[in-house]
Amino acid sequence: MQPYELPLSAAADAIRARQLSPVELADSVLERIGEVEPHLQAYVTVTAEHARRAAREAEGDIAAGRYRGPLHGIPMALKDLIDVAGTATSAGSRVRANHRAQADSAVAARLAAAGAVLVGKTHTHEFAYGLTTPQTHNAWNTGRIAGGSSGGSAVAVAAGAATFALGTDTGGSIRVPAALNGVVGLKPTYGLVPRHGVTPLSWSLDHVGPITRTVKDAALVLTALAGHDPRDPASLATPAVDYRPGAGADLTGLRIGVPRTYYFDHVDAEVEAATRRAIGRLQSLGARLVEVGIPMTRYIRATQWGLMVPEATAYHENTLRTVPELYQADVRILLEAGELMPAGDYLRAQRARTLMRQEWARMLEEVDLIVAPTVPATAVEAGQESITWADGTVEGVSDAYVRLSSPANITGLPSLSVPVGHDAAGLPIGMQLLGRPLEESVLLRVGHAYEQTRPARELAPTT
C-alpha cells in the first residue's frame, strides 16, 4: 500500500509511531496528484513547494518531540473559497482573477496550528452557486459530474489526491459531492465551525466542514475545527469536544427515525435499496427503528431558495452591477433573479425557517437521529440537465440533488453523509444521518458503527 492510500487515522498512527514520515506522505500525495489530476481536474492550485516545506517542518517537530496531534503532517486540500494568506482565493470566478488572501481564514489557521499540510486549493462551482462543479470530473467515472459545489474537494479525497479536505455547504455542497464520489462528508451544526475568511454564498445557510475517507477521519478534523470565533457573528460558544467515536459498534437503545414522507419520494430504486439495507445494518447493531413524518415538506424548496437567492445577491451587489460580464451565465442569472425578489418573500422564508426548526425539534424529541438517502440519484452524465422519474416527473439536476440535503441547512442541524454501496454502473451511493443541534458525536458514533459492518473502502479507480 502506498502512503497516499492511507486514510487519515491510519496515516496519523503511522506518523506518531515513526513508521511513516510526513515528507514521505506529502511526496506520495503530490505524486498521486500528478497522476490523476489530468483526468479529474480537482485542483485549481497545487501548492507543492509549500507542502514539501511544511512536511519537512512537521518531520523536524515530531522528531524533536513536538507532536501536535493526529493532523500533524497530514496533507489536506481546501475548497477555493477558503482564504490562506498569500494564496489566491478565486472562488471559481473571473471576478476574483486578481485576488490574493491577506490572512488565513479561521479554519485554515486552526488546521495549520494542528500541523496539517496544505497541498492545494480545490475547484468549486462559481462562488459555490451550483451543485455540479463543472471544472471537475467524478472520481469513479470521468464522464459523470463530480457534484458540487465542493466537487474538487470530494474528488481529491476519493482519488487519494488529498488525505482530507474542507468544503462548504449551503444546501448540500459538502454532502452531495461526498455521496457522488463515495467519501464521507460532514455538515456540522450551524455556527459550530467558524466561517471567518470564507467567501460566503448565503450567510444564514453557509457551513464549513470536512470531507474524508472515513467517519473517524471526519471526527478528527472536526475536533480541530470546532470552537468559537468572535469574528463570525453566527459562531457558537461551545466547550472543546473530542469527537472521535469509540471502538464499539453496539447501538442498543438508540432510536433511529426512518422517514415515511419526503426522503424516499422520487428516489432512484437502487439508491433506496442501498439506503434501506444500511438502515437494516443499523437495526442489527441494536438500534430501534421508528417511522417518522417529515414536517412542512411543501415549504422546503421555497424556503431554501427564498433565503439563499436574496442573500447571495446582496453579497454580489457591487460586482454584479460593475462587472456582470465576468460571471458565468448560470450564476449571473441567479444573482439577477435575486434583485427581483420582494423583501416580503425573504421575510416569509425566514418565518418558515423558524417554524420548520420548531417542528424538527419536536420530531427529534421522539428519535435520536434521522436516516435517509443523501441524494436521490447517483452521479448523472456531464451536461445532463434533468432527471425523469418513474412516474414521468421531470426534475432539474440541481433541484434533485439539493432536495434531500437542504432541510439540514434551513434548520441548521448537523448532517453526515456516509457511503453505503454502488449502483449497477459502479457509481457510489450515500446515506445521510441528521441529528439534533450540537450532537455531531451521535452521528459520528452511528456512522462509525455502520462502517465497521463493511469492508474497508478502496480509493476510486479514477478512470
From TrEMBL:
Pfam families documented for this protein: Amidase
Annotated Gene3D superfamilies: Amidase signature (AS) domain
Amidase domain segment(s): 25-444
SUPFAM superfamilies: Amidase signature (AS) enzymes
GO MF: catalytic activity
Entry-linked InterPro entries: Amidase, Amidase_CS, Amidase_dom, AS_sf
PANTHER family to which the protein is assigned, alphabetical: AMIDASE AMID-RELATED (PTHR11895:SF176), TRANSAMIDASE (PTHR11895)
Protein name per Swiss-Prot or TrEMBL: Amidase
Organism: Streptomyces longwoodensis
